[in-house]
Amino acid sequence: MSDLFFERVAFIGIGHIGSSLARVVLRDKLAGRITACANRAETLETVKRLKLADSVTTDPAAAVKDADLVVLATPLSAYGAVAQAIAPALRPGAILTDVGSVKSLVLREVKPLLPPEIHLVPGHPVAGTENSGPESGFPEVFRGRWCILTPVPGGDAAALDKVTRLWQAAEMEVVTMDAEHHDTVLAITSHLPHLIAYTIVGTATDLEETLKSEVIKFSASGFRDFTRIAASDPVMWRDIFLNNREAVLAVLQRFNEDLTALQRAIRWGEGDKLQALFTRTRAIRRSIIEAKQA
Amino acid sequence: MSDLFFERVAFIGIGHIGSSLARVVLRDKLAGRITACANRAETLETVKRLKLADSVTTDPAAAVKDADLVVLATPLSAYGAVAQAIAPALRPGAILTDVGSVKSLVLREVKPLLPPEIHLVPGHPVAGTENSGPESGFPEVFRGRWCILTPVPGGDAAALDKVTRLWQAAEMEVVTMDAEHHDTVLAITSHLPHLIAYTIVGTATDLEETLKSEVIKFSASGFRDFTRIAASDPVMWRDIFLNNREAVLAVLQRFNEDLTALQRAIRWGEGDKLQALFTRTRAIRRSIIEAKQA
User: Could you tell me if B191 and B258 lie in one domain?
Assistant: First the structure.
């Protein structure tokens, strides 16, 4: 990996994932300089205190000046505005990558704004905890997890290779796929589970106080598992649902049909149907254990 | 605890929870003899191999003969038949307790069949893993968790005290509440989360093979958390849904309304509504962490 080196890396947005990657870059000495850009002065103070960057700024255009690698790590709703701001300031030949959870968006909102000599490599490290902010990051968060890159057709092979090796340095397994396909797969594995968890925890939040305190008390019986993912960053998740709307609504429709069928089986006492489903779902757990993702 | 002792404990059903309690009884020498009763010869072979009981039988009436403590630990659907079988054979003054996840059922299907000199103490140790069978039990499964007892109005105080101390020996925190209330609280904290998890894993199970293998591959992004609870015992959970039908359908109705509202907010791009909900749900996670149930 000794030939993996960037003169200057700019992080636009430096929360949980951005700061974790900055820590990898620092740990492995992968950059000459790091610049961090964030909206909020408080975030940049934290970045300075943690010594995650050599310089900080609230101006994305200033941040990307002279950078040979730009990592876009803001919430998805900022992508368009950031792309507009940085496009004229990007150094020719620079690599622009991102860490967002919806990949067709990058093609829609970022790519059209870029000059042709910029190498766009959209990416999604499928990792992270429910915590947010630069103080919550740590370099091992990526270890053994998947990073999905969705290369632009006809894109620069050397740029793709460098971004691949960056995530490999973070100990991730890197795979590539089409952006639309990524968004369909993640709608099932990540976006729907989060939506359901937010809903069930929201339902509990609306209970009267006495009952709510008992739900918290006895949460270890199943509910607790949902609260962890329903504690994820609200803005990040708002943006995911708004920007992967079609795929999320499609899989939600299937989920709703299946839930209605189960509801009906309970109402009519159809024990055989329930048992058959509950037996089938056990197999998926075994597959996940076999795939070493448990 | 030195005065907590039973001459003969009979386990009717000895799976994950029954065998875990048997291990506590053995560890702490709380019984002179243990008898285990199960339907399947294979289960009894395992019990013998693991030395969890002094004697085994497939006949519930034979199992409870001379027992001063009977622990009913079968799936809920067997409760009525077991109660009918053991009622004439129970020793006068014996304590009958259970470990089931629905407590109004015990009052409906077991209590009416018992002679008046039997002390019924319905119970629910809120503990366990997703594994099943006597080989999956271990005495520490109960440690630090809640055990809910739903004492029968006018029931024997000494019997309640003995069962309380039994679960305290298993390192549980024991609380008492009304059976109906138990069933409402658990419908929210346990039954609905399991129903949702079974549904979402079922939805994934029905995907075409290529997509399904990718869902397994990228399951760490949220989906995985659901598969653990959707790997729970199919018969046990079939019986829970069938026997706590009203409470489960009531809370499912609220969940459905909330999910529909969220679905609509996504479809119409109402980001403020999404963000407001996702911010509220974070608070519940903090409460669970503060309650040391995380």
Answer: yes
**Among the partner residues B219, B220, B288, nearest to A227 by beta-carbon distance:** B288
- Picking from A202, A216, A249, the nearest residue to B258 by CB comes out as A202
- The chain B residue lying nearest A213, using CA atoms, is B287
Measured between beta carbons, the chain A residues lying within 8 angstroms of B244 are: none
User: CATH no. for residue A41?
Assistant: 3.40.50.720
Residue B1 lies in a domain: no
Confidence of residue B1 (pLDDT cuts 50, 70, 90): very low
Looking at chain A, how many residues does it have?
294
Does B10 share its domain with B112?
yes
Q: Where in the sequence is the domain holding A236, given as residue range(s)?
A: 181-290
Strand order across the beta sheet in which B173-176 lies: B123-125, B146-149, B173-176
Residue B222: its chain A contacts at CB < 8 A? 189-194, 197, 229
A1 found inside a domain:
no
Residues in chain B closer than 8 A to A216 (CB atoms): 284, 287-288, 291, 293
Lowest-pLDDT range of A37-51, A146-160, B45-59, B224-238 = B224-238
| Interchain proximity B201–A228, CB inside 8 Å | no
Tens of pLDDT, residues A224-245: 889 988 999 999 999 999 999 9
Of A82-86, A172-176, A277-281, the range with the lowest mean pLDDT is A277-281
**Burial degree of B105 (CB within 10 A; 0-12, 13-18, 19+):** buried
The single residue listed with the structure tokens 């993702």 is A293
Whether pTM exceeds 0.80 = yes
Domain count, chain A: 2
What are the distances in angstroms from CA A14 to CA A79, A168, B93, B256? 14, 20, 68, 36
Q: Which of A204, A209, A220, A210 is nearest to B146 (CA)?
A: A220
CATH number at residue A185: 1.10.3660.10
The 8-class DSSP code of residue A74 comes to S
Same domain, residue pair A51 and A157: yes
In chain A, what residues touch B195 (CB-CB under 8 Å)?
Answer: 259, 262
pLDDT value at position A1? 45
Q: Which residues of B touch A99 (CB under 8 A)?
A: none
Question: Same domain for B158 and B213?
Answer: no
Distance between B90 CA and the closest CA of chain A, angstroms: 31
CA distance B131 to chain A (A): 10
Say if the Cβ atoms of B271 and A204 lie within 8 Å: no
- Domain limit, last residue, from B177, B199, B214: B177
Q: Tell me the per-residue pLDDT of B238-281, one tens digit each, with 9 for 90 and over.
A: 999 999 999 999 999 999 999 999 999 999 999 999 999 999 99
Domain co-membership, A268 together with A141? no
The gap from C-alpha A162 to its chain's centroid, in whole angstroms, comes to 20
Q: Which of A186, A242, A255 faces B203 most closely, judged by CB atoms?
A: A255
Q: Which of A177, A206, A235 is the last residue of a domain?
A: A177
In B, minimum Cα distance to A224 occurs at B294
Cβ-Cβ contacts under 8 Å, A209 against chain B? none
Contact B29, B6 (CB under 8 A): no
Q: How many CB pairs under 8 A join A and B?
A: 293
Shortest Cα distance, chain A CAs vs residue B242, angstroms:
6
Q: Are residues A110 and A20 in the same domain?
A: yes
Q: Pick the closest to residue B159 from B4, B270, B293 (CA basis).
A: B4
Mean pLDDT across the stretch B199-216?
A: 91
E strands along A150-262, which residues?
173-176
